[in-house]
Amino acid sequence: MNALQVVILLLVAGGGLLVVATRDPLRQAMVASFFGILLALLFFVLQAPDVALSEIVVGAVALPLMILLSLAKVRGGQR
Amino acid sequence: MTRRTRTAMFLGSAAVLGAFLLWGFSGLPSFGHGLISAGEMLNRVSVAQRHITDVVTAVNFDYRGIDTMGEEFIFFAAVVGVALIMRPQPGEGARHVEDYAFGRAVPPTSDAVRVLGLGLAAPTVLFALYVVAHGHLTPGGGFQGGVILATGVLLIYLAGEFDHLHGLYGEAAVERAEAAGAAAYVAIGFLALVSGSAFMTNVWPLGTTGHLVSAGSVPLINTAVGVEVGAGFVLLLNTFLRQALVIRPEPTRTPLEEALNRSRW
After folding, report:
1. Which candidate from B147, B237, B245 shows the least CB-CB separation from A57?
2. Is ipTM over 0.85?
3. pTM
4. Residue of A nearest to B124 (CA)
């Protein structure tokens, strides 16, 4: 395991904790998106570029977007 | 249950789970070593056997192509489920499409977002096509390319309005594309049966290693998956955006209001 892998593994561990510790769903969507990028980086330094590509688009874009749109829907119904 | 009992239960089960995890992890091969023999073998043989340079794609769409077909239909079923659950319900109506925010004014889309969105949309779509077409040569493939394609559509929404998307694609056409992509994967499997081999066998001419047209059925399946996943994600995006921006519950009326409303007409 080289230094880069260690650093990114630690970042992923920290990022995962941050996602759980963020209680406001709107902020959590943003933190989850950032966590998706960290995971993609981890896959990349572990020589799995195929999975990293999927993780970038799904974890960093598609998933947070769906959370955001669901939040917009739920909160929009309040007015 | 009191907080104390819950804490005790958590600590107890965490200790048991932790012990099992430690036991399991201690039996793992050390980091970066102990590749399973199938992986080592595939790394050696797949270039010669299938004229393919991305072994991950070779595994996904050839050696275990039938498993990937199952995964493909998991995605298909998920999209159909979302479209079904989020269809307009009785008692819901469409409203004028505009961005809004609860309790504050919406700032207009900035010029920077418009320029970036419009400028990046076409290169994103082109990159998506590249990722799909080169799935057997470099990292990527139908799934990755398909999702990237959908982010191109998202950029157009960010730069413009929700209504602009429907000048770009018809919803029915996207639904058909999704179904056709899923069906094409199965059809490629059946073509192998027709030729006298097992389902999903790579019976196509393999071509020259490293060329765009090579690796037999793999680029064909990648294209089918790219169409399916791209259309599926566009459909997901469309459904979520419509729910968030267009569909509103109709104002509920009390029976009295209902009666008054009727008598007025």
Report:
1. B147
2. no
3. 0.81
4. A57
